[in-house]
User: Which sequence fits this backbone?
């Protein structure tokens, strides 16, 4: 039970006021204490900064405190909804504890995964991404322990599910492991279990044979200019030709270019700003545009669809060029590389043929600095230095294209 002393440590936001808190308030509060919202719901901030939801109710004549989960996992709106249901049940003579215990006893791993999926639905990059998250669990985890109670899932269950695909489909297996861990972390926050087996199985999984790791096919940088010539001479659509060369010149990922919109470009500044929502690292990325990039954009304006903001439209109205279209084009003209591989070609060229600093090269590729100490000091995106780097790359490719 939380006492009067504990309640007094919080700053009063309003006595018995309905919906006294806001999502912004919840994020901003830091001082340890007990903050009321309404319907007996409180935000409890521990001395270590952890935030959790507590509801105080009179249940069958006794005052009880009900934990509603971590504020980091349970949104304010969801906590309010749960608190309202508990209060209604308590006022009618029911016991929220008994009801929750009954529900928890029946909750399987699949039930918990569905709850987490719904909880995170507003944050998915797009509906397809969210469905993929759930589908991988359905395919690889559910057959082994989907019907098992979530608190009964063990390290052995995880190993049974992951071991067969750990080497053969490692990227998929790693994602499944991470997603299983997310579900189990939610279960811990709900008080359904106390441990997360995903933390303990890494050393028990098979060691990967690095000699069998297949990297994305890439061309030597000396052959990239020839590849651009072959694409330009092909019978591909103008949008495909322009998009391919733009991808190579900017060293961007395929989707970053294919979904590019005119509203993202400042042609006077020769600058392209890719929004965070389309970046792998979820950070806005500025791309300096070379004169050749501006020429490509001028050509793209000539094929712009009326009323569309897309720079590189596909065959369907107001739909971007598909990744398969560009990949198929490379196969048809005999270029032994995938579109993503041209980022590797750029990186190899920059590392071997230029004296540009490593951090400039990594920022040009929009890579995240993994070293936390180094990242703390990397406040600049080194934009002007990257502009010179991309100009050097464009000049190199122009020279290679001019060769017989």
Assistant:
């Amino acid at each position: 039970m939380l006492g009067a002393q504990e309640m007094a440590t919080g700053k009063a936001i309003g006595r018995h006021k309905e919906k006294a808190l806001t999502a912004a308030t919840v994020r901003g509060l830091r001082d340890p204490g007990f903050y009321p919202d309404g319907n007996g719901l409180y935000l409890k901030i521990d001395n270590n900064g952890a935030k959790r939801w507590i509801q105080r109710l009179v249940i069958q004549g006794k005052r009880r405190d009900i934990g509603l989960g971590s504020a980091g996992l349970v949104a304010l709106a969801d906590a309010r909804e749960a608190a309202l249901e508990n209060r209604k049940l308590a006022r009618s003579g029911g016991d929220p504890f008994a009801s929750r215990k009954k529900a928890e006893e029946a909750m399987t791993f699949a039930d918990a995964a569905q709850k987490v999926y719904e909880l995170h639905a507003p944050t998915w990059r797009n509906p397809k991404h969210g469905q993929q998250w759930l589908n991988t669990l359905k395919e690889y985890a559910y057959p082994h322990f989907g019907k098992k109670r979530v608190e009964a899932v063990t390290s052995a269950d995880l190993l049974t599910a992951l071991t067969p695909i750990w080497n053969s489909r490692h990227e998929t297996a790693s994602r499944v492991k991470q997603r299983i861990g997310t579900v189990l972390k939610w279960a811990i926050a709900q008080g359904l279990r106390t441990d997360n087996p995903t933390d303990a199985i890494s050393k028990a999984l098979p060691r990967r044979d690095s000699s069998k790791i297949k990297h994305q096919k890439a061309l030597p940088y000396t052959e990239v200019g020839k590849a651009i010539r072959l694409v330009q001479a092909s019978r591909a659509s103008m949008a495909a030709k322009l998009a391919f060369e733009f991808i190579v010149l900017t060293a961007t990922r395929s989707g970053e270019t294919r979904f590019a919109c005119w509203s993202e470009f400042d042609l006077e500044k020769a600058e392209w700003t890719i929004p965070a929502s389309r970046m792998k690292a979820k950070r806005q990325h500025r791309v300096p545009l070379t004169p050749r990039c501006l020429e490509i954009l001028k050509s793209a304006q000539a094929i712009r669809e009326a009323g569309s903001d897309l720079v590189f439209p596909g065959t369907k109205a107001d739909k971007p060029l598909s990744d398969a279209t560009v990949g198929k084009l490379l196969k048809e003209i005999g270029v032994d590389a995938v579109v993503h591989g041209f980022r590797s070609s750029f990186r190899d060229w920059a590392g071997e043929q230029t004296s540009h600093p490593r951090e400039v090269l990594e920022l040009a590729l929009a890579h995240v600095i993994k070293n936390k100490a180094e990242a703390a000091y990397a406040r600049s995106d080194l934009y002007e230095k990257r502009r010179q780097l991309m100009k050097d790359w464009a000049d190199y490719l122009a020279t290679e294209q001019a060769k017989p």
User: Anything to note?
Assistant: The chain is about 50% helix and 10% strand. The longest strand covers residues 51-59.
